Amino acid sequence: MTEDLSTVLEEILATARASQDRGKVADYIPELAGVDPSRFALSVVLADGSQHSVGDTDVGFSIQSVSKVFALAIALGRHGDRLWARVGREPSGLAFNSILQLEHERGIPRNPFINAGAIVVTDAALAGHAPREYLGELLRFIRAAAEDDGIHINDAVARSETETGHRNVALAHYLRSYGNLLNPPEMTLGAYFHQCAVEMTCAQLARAGRFLTAAPGMPRMVAPGRVRRINALMLTCGHYDGSGDFAYRVGLPGKSGVGGGILVIAPGRASIAVWSPGLNAQGNSKLGTEAVEHLARRMGWSVFG
Ligand code: GLU
Question: How far is CA 175 from CA 85, 103, 165, 196, in A?
């Protein structure tokens, strides 16, 4: 198995290196716009605990919306199923930062992974704590999951997000107008922007995702029933309006970020992280998606049998 995997990883790296169309790097803040589009990394932690990586696996990148998975785990830990009174569990079919549905649905965002939903999740995770305390807890959670204390927040990224995040500011105020934001919008947004600015290497992200595999011997950060539900949401909502296509092509739960990272879970088998900064039209890593599609096909990994 491990030998097959090494061959497959080398194939994927060679394909990625040769690829002409790498998608478009996010350019809404200078820290993301300046990332080298030729970067590529793929890391897999198997259920036996072994880790197999190719490419730039030790280069840090901004995990952006992949952080929404960890924030959701913390918010569910605080509130349990009561969280679902404030945020739905349906795919949105719209862009990550769309405001359209919010009016129709009276301030209840479609799911926890579109920006409006993630802002509500962060608001819920704050639950009376100062942003600094929540961010400390988030980092502790991620560091414990990855068993790596070197993971940190990139303050320059957080500052840039704060300066340019007008759409997120609008979403937060809109949520507040419906009574679905309990903290002052600036406070929740400060926490949200810093959460998005968590920086990790591909190798660290693959290790941080191990708790979602629910494989024996992996760190157990949340109850098994909750792991299944987080995976269900990643499968149905983890790639914005590209979620159906990702489920069809890859067949595994995944959460993407605009920094070009994707965390993908093969339940019971593997935690997979991929990073390629160029994005497709839906804002998901182009080569990253192709790489995990290739990996899942060659390894026979799918939640659909
Ligand atoms: N910080 C980005 C935003 O909130 C995250 C988007 C993403 O990674 O998809 O707009």
Answer: 14, 9, 15, 19
Q: Which domains does the chain have, with CATH numbers?
A: 2-64+199-299 (3.40.710.10), 67-198 (3.40.710.10)
284 touches ligand 1 (CB under 6 Å): no
- The tokens for 42 are 């793929």
* 10-29 burial code (b ≥16 CB/10 A, e <16): eebbeebeebeebbebbeeb
pTM, rounded to two decimals: 0.97
**Residue 102 · residue 179 · CB < 8 Å:** no
CA of 81 to the centre of ligand 1 (A): 25
Indicate the pLDDT class of residue 49, thresholds 50, 70 and 90: very high
| 91-149 per-position pLDDT tens digit | 998 888 889 989 999 999 999 999 999 999 999 999 899 999 999 999 999 999 999 99
DSSP codes of every residue in 33-72? HTS-TT--EEEEEETTS-EEEEESTTS-EE-GGGHHHHHH
What whole-number distance in Å separates Cα of residue 63 and Cα of residue 56?
A: 15
Distance of CA 6 from the midpoint of ligand 1 (Å): 32
- pLDDT range class, residue 208, cuts 50, 70, 90: very high
Cα of 113 vs centre of ligand 1, distance in Å, is: 10
Give pLDDT, residue 243.
96
Triad 137, 141, 142: Cα angle to 5°? 120
Nearest atom within ligand 1 for CA of residue 240: 9
Residue to substitute in 25, 94, 97, 160 for testing ligand 1 pocket (most ligand atoms within 8 angstroms of CB)? 97
The pick from 92, 258, 275 for probing ligand 1's pocket by mutation, whose C-beta has the most ligand atoms within 8 angstroms, reads 258
